[in-house]
Amino acid sequence: MTALSFLAWRTLRRNPVRTALVILGLSVTGALLLDMTMLSGGLQASLGQLLSRLGFAIRVVPKGTLPFSGDAEIPDGDGLAAAIASRPGVTAAVPVLATNVYVRRGRATFASFAIGVPRGGTGVYGMLAGRDLPGRAAADPEGGGADIPIVVNENMVRLDGVHVGDAVVVSGAPSLGITGPSGALRARVTGVADFYVDLATQRSMALRTEDLRRVRAMAPGGASLILVRVSDPAQAGGIAAWIGAQEPRVDALTIGRFIARAGARLTYFNQFAVILSTLSLLVSFLLVTSIVTLSLGERLGEIAMLRALGMTRFRVGALVVLEGVVLSALSLPGAFALGLGLSGPLDAILRGAPGVPENLHFFTFGPGAATRTAAMLLVTGAAGGVYPAMVASRLGVAPTLHAEVQS
Amino acid sequence: MTAELPPAHAPGAVIEARDVTKDYRMPGGVVRALRGVSLDVERGRCLAILGPSGCGKSTLLHVLGGVDVPTTGAVTALGRRTAEMSDAALTRLRLRHIGFVFQRFFLLPMLTAEENVLLPMIEAGVPPGERRARARALLARVGLSARLRHHPGQLSGGEMQRVAIARALANRPQVLLADEPTGELDEATGREVGMLLREVSTEGLAVVVVTHNPEIAALADRQVRMKDGVIT
């Protein structure tokens, strides 16, 4: 096979310009294939990375939903969180309340996503500037004061000019003034944070759960989501099953189940990727078949000579198939360079769509995507060589030699 | 395979053709290229097949060398009837026991002279060290020691044909079949190539040269003439 590879390589070098053009063409189709391979699993991979980054192995949500996907609540979420926290293997169970609120600053009013986190709980954001909510650290004695403390995201800083130390009014309706202990509350910005599941231009804030309940006049005890941290990730499946058995009105989603459920809602990306991948492979196949068939037609006499000298039909066919494989192999560096270069702008376009969390990526490069792309291109190269290989291996030696002399 | 063959340098015919016909189906009907040809190819002798274009010389050479099989009649090459051999067996026969030289040389242009000679030995599984030494010795023998690294495009017609002869001898065949080996060469170069083929036959090989050049045919031990598919 080494001798055949050498011969295939030398054959392709006979016409360097033509070979270079084919490799360029295959690089372009290979780049598209790589991007579609990255897209087909990229969102799930990116989601997995994001979820892992938060450090929670299980998310408990109202049955049939995904976190923050609606207004559904877990009844007695605080009680369920306490029960989960007491189970061996669970190191934390944080009930999180999420809803929409309005923020008024001066004459401007804007909507914001609000996450209520309990005292001593762990948030779904990372601090960038200022201080976290008082009382979030278990030993923090502060928590009083006239204004409720809030932490805002960077969008609110960038779009609305809200800064640490600013006073704002947080309310459950757009036009309410400060009306007392519920409905609208004066708030003071204590810090700026990166909220991990923010949409691109979404304004978000975090405040204590009891403050959020006061703003929205909500009954105590409910939760939108319970985040569960476990000591051993391998036990997450068992603990999730236990939670599901305790409370049938919830789903306890491990990261894997979460990704599967989210992925099921994003099948159109997979379908898109499959269609374009198939087209890319088809064009690659046709390119290889055309060029190898054309090249073969120019050297039928040589092929007949090789057969006359004692090269078997199989080896002659293998030589031609290898030419297709070598063409594909040579296109891989260009395909990867172009594909990776294109994936950035394509990712930016898709991430600019409404409703896409900032930290999610559609095109995720990894060993899996690279291996799948390379394997598909090489197999396509081989498949592209099959037809000319059949022509070569079935070539009539004597008639071909005769025809060559006659011509 | 080797066990079926007669011992090397044994006297007698290495290829026997008996009452051979060869038909080709063409758009206008069947064309009979050979019409009952009988011929012996003997070890250590050079046989020239003469005749005008289209008389069936090349077809006969192909049938003798196992590149093609007769429509009727029998060709026995090295003890086996070619019509009864599988394609794989015929391929092995050609690889190990029959060398071909073509009018158009058919050297692979992307390989050097040495690599062209190495090619049949690679196919035959000759060990790398041995095949390289053998290729260099063969190219030295045909006077091309200084041209090992040259590609066919850098060689003259006569040099290319000498490389082709070295390639045909690479697997130490018992038969060398040359189809119009001087057809694309000038008179002097053609004579040199003819002499080389004649010389090869004196070393025990059976050599068959198809030619329409009486001067080249005159170098052979024996000449047969063909016309319209028969030996006259």
Describe the model.
The complex is a heterodimer of chains A (407) and B (232). Chain A is 52% helix and 19% strand. Chain A folds into two domains: 2-51 and 266-406, no CATH class; 88-231, no CATH class. Chain A has a six-stranded mixed barrel. The two termini of chain A are 33 Å apart. Chain A is α+β, with helices and mostly antiparallel strands and 407 residues long. Chain B is α/β, with parallel strands linked by helices. Chain B has one domain: P-loop containing nucleotide triphosphate hydrolases (Rossmann fold, 3-Layer(aba) Sandwich), CATH 3.40.50.300. Chain B is built from seven helices and ten strands. In chain B, α3 packs parallel to α5 and α5 runs parallel beside α6 (187-201). The chains are: A alpha+beta (407), B alpha/beta (232).
Radius of gyration of chain A: 31 Å
Average pLDDT, all residues of chain B: 90
From the helix content, strand content and strand pairing of chain B, which structural class follows? Answer: alpha/beta
Parts with pLDDT < 50 across at least 5 consecutive residues of chain B: 1-10
CATH topology (fold) name of chain B: Rossmann fold
Number of domains of chain B: 1
Tell me the overall shape of chain B.
globular
* Terminal-residue CA separation of chain A: 33 Å
CATH architectural grouping of chain B? 3-Layer(aba) Sandwich
Based on CA atoms alone, the radius of gyration of chain B comes out at 17 Å
Nearest-integer average pLDDT of chain A? 86
The helical percent of chain A reads 40-55%
Largest sheet of chain A: 6 strands, mixed, barrel
Task: Offer a few descriptive terms.
heterodimer; A: 407 residues; alpha+beta; 2 domains; six-stranded mixed beta barrel; 13 helices; 10 strands; 52% helix; B: 232 residues; alpha/beta; Rossmann fold; six-stranded mixed sheet; four-stranded antiparallel sheet; 28% strand; globular; disordered N terminus
